[in-house]
Amino acid sequence: MYDLTRVADAGLGPALGRQLWTAGAVTAVFTVFARWLRGVSVSGAIAGAAVCFVLYASAGPAAFAALVSVFALTWITTRLGYRRKQKLGTAQNREGRTASQVLANLAVAASCAALSTITQRAVFLLAACAALSEAAADTVSSELGQAGSEKVRLITTWEEVSAGTDGGVSWAGTFAGLAAAALVSLVCVLAGLLPLRWFAGSIIGAVSGMVADSYLGASLERREVLDNNWVNFLGTLVAAGVATLLAIYVHQRP
Question: Is the pTM above the cut of 0.85?
Answer without folding.
Answer: yes
